[in-house]
Amino acid sequence: MTLILFFEQILNGIQFGTMLFLMSAGLTLIFGVMGLINLAHGSFYMIGAFSAALIAALTDSFWLALLASLAGAAIAGVLIEIIIIRHLYRRNHLDQVLATFALILLLSEGVRWCFGAFPLYLNIPDILNGTVPIFDNIIYSKYRLFIIFMGFLIALGLYILITKTRLGIRIRAGQNDRQMISALGVDISKLYTIVFAIGASLAGLSGAMIGAIQSVEVGMGEPILILAFVVIVIGGIGSIKGALVGSILVGVTDTIGRIFLPELLKVFMEPSNATSVGSSIGSMLIYILMALILIIKPSGLFGKS
Amino acid sequence: MIIEKFFNKWIMFFLILIPTCGVIFDEPYFITLATKVVILGIAGIGLNLALGYCGLISLGHAAFFGIGGYITGILSFHALNDEVLFSWPLAVSGSSEMLIIWPIAILVSALLSFIIGLLSLRTSGVYFIMITLAFAQMLYFFSISWPNYGGEDGLSIYMRNSFPMVNTMDPLSFYVISLFWLLFSIFISLRLINSPFGMTFQAIKQNEERVKSVGIETFKVKLLVFVISGTITGLAGSLYTDLNRFVSPTVLDWHTSGEIMVFVILGGMARLYGPLVGAAFFIALEQTLGSYTENWQFWLGLILILVILFARSGILGLFDKKLKYEK
C-alpha cells in the first residue's frame, strides 16, 4: 500500500515538475537572452488557460483549446513585448520588477474584466479520461501521464531548438554577447520578440494543461510563478538544463514533503499535531531546499558564478 | 533639494490638517485613512533604506511587515484568551500592552531580517530579488497551513492593544501614536543617511567594488542596513494589525512586498518623505478609483507602468527637476 502510494506521489511530483519546467524554461530563457526579470510570466500562464477555456467552450475540442493556449499566450506575448517590455531591457532590475509587477495588476484585472471573477473549467477529452495500469497493481491517471509526456516532449523540442537550429544558435549567441551578434547583422529586436513569444507560449500551454485539472481563474499564475523562480534560482539563472533538473527536484520535493512529512512526524508526535506541523513544514520544504542549495552554491546548480 | 524641503513642510502640514478636518467635520473615516497612510509610509520608509539608499532590491519585505503583524496578533490573541504563549523553557503569556508588544515585534523582525539577510546577501542581482521573494513566500505558506492562528482566515483581535493613559480605540489617539512612529522612523533614517555609516551604504549603492577596495567589509554594512530596514517595516506591520484589529496571511503575500515597493517608487526613491507620498497617492487612488470601478488595480497598473517608463524619479521628482534619475 505505502509503496504504491509512494510511487504514485513520485509520479505526481514529476507531473508537477514538468509543468514547472514549462514555466521556468521560458523565464530562464528570457532572463538569459534579454536579461529581463519577468514577474508577469505567470500572467501568460493565465492568458493561456483562459484562451483554452474560451476555445473549448466555442468548439468543444480539447486539442484546439491546447493550440489556442499556445497561440493566445504567444500573441499576448508579442504585443506586450512590443508595447512595454521592449523598453525595459536597458533598464535596471528594479524598473523591470516594478513594470512587470504593474503588468500583473493590469493583466489580471483585464482578464477579470473580460471573463468575470468566476472560475472556468476545462474538460479533459475522453481518450485521456480515466486511469491506466502501469505495473501489476499500480494505476495512474492517463491525463497526468499525458502531461508528463508532453513536458518531456517539449523539453526535447527545446533541446533540439537550442542546439540544432539556426534560431537556437542565435539565442545562444545572444546569451553570450548581445552586442556582438547585433554587430554581426542579426536583427536583435526581432530575436528578442521571438524568444519572449516562445517563453509566453510555453507558459500558456502549461496554464491550459493545469487548468484542466484545477480551475481556470484570475491569479492562477502567481503561485506557480514564484515556484518557477525558486526553480531557476536552484537550477541557475539562464540555464535550461538547470531549469529541468530544478523543476523535477522542486516538483518531487514539494509533493512528497506534503504527503509524507505528516506521516513521518506521526511516529513521534500526536497525530493531530503531526498533521498540522507536518503540513506547515511540508509547504516550506522547497524554500528550505533552496536555502540549502544557495548556501552550498550561491549561483545555483548549473549557474555561472 | 530646496524645493523638496519646501514640499516636505507641506507634507507635514497635511499630516496635521487631514485629521483635524476629520475631527471638525466628524468624519472618523478620514482619520483612519490618514493612519493607514502613515503606517504604510513607515513600512515604505523602512524599505527605502535598503532599496533607495543601499540599492538592495528586496521583494520580500512583506515577510517583515507580516511578522510584525502576526507577533502583535498572536500576543494579543493569547492575552485575550488568557492562554500561555508557551510554557517551556519559561512560561510566557500573551500581552495586550503596546509597550510590551512593540519591543517584541521589533526584536523578532530584527532577528528574522538578520536570518533572511544573512542567507540572501550571499547573492546579488536577480538572485537577491528572487530569494527575498521566496523567503517571504515561505512564511506566507507557513501562515496559511499553520492552523492555530486562523490559517487562511486570519486572526481577529477584538480590541486594539492598549497604551497607558490613552484610549487607543479613539481614531485620533491611534493616529497620534502612529504619527509618532512615523516621525521617529524619519528621524532615524535622517540620522543614518547623514552618518559615516550612511555614507558607506550609499556608496555601496553606487559602486560596491570601490567600497570594498578601500577595505570596508560591505557584507556587514549591507546586513546591518537590511536588518534596520526590516525592523522598521516590521514595526509598521505591528501598527497595521492594531489599526485593522485583524491580521491574515495577506500581509505576508508577495503583493504586499510589491505594494511597499510601489510606495517607494511612486514617491521617489532615496527621498526621505518619498514613501509617505507614495503611500498617500496609493491610498488616494484606491479610494477615488475604487469608488468608480471594481477594477481599479487595472488603472493602478497602467499608472505605474507610465511612471516607470516616463517619470522615473517619482512624484517628488516632478517637483525637483534638478535631481535627475540616476541609474
Characterize the structure shown.
The complex is a heterodimer of chains A (305) and B (327). Chain A has one domain (2-225). Chain A is globular and about 65 Å long. Chain A is built from eleven helices and two strands, in the order ααααββααααααα. By secondary structure, chain A is mainly α. Chain A starts with a helix and ends in a 9-residue tail after the last helix. Chain A has helices at 2-34, 41-59, 62-83, 93-115, 142-164, 166-176, 178-183, 188-213, 221-235, 240-266, 271-296; strands at residues 131-133, 139-141. Chain A has a two-stranded antiparallel ribbon with strand order 1-2. With 327 residues, chain B is mostly helical. Chain B has one domain (2-318). In chain B, 71% of the residues lie in helices and 3% in strands. In chain B, a hairpin with a 5-residue loop joins strand 1 (84-86) and strand 2 (92-93). In chain B, helix 2 (28-53) packs parallel to helix 6 (171-193) and helix 11 (274-292) packs antiparallel against helix 12. Chain B is globular, with a radius of gyration of 20 Å. Chain B starts with a helix and ends in a 9-residue tail after the last helix. In chain B, 49% of the residues are buried. Chain A binds chain B through residues 31, 37, 84, 87, 91-95, 97-99, 101-110, 112-113, 222, 226, 229-230, 232-233, 237, 276, 279-280, 282-284, 287-288, 290-291, 294-295, 298-300, and chain B through 51, 57, 59, 119, 122-123, 125-127, 129-131, 133-135, 137-138, 141-142, 144-148, 254, 258, 261-262, 265, 295, 297-298, 300-302, 304-305, 308-309, 312, 327.
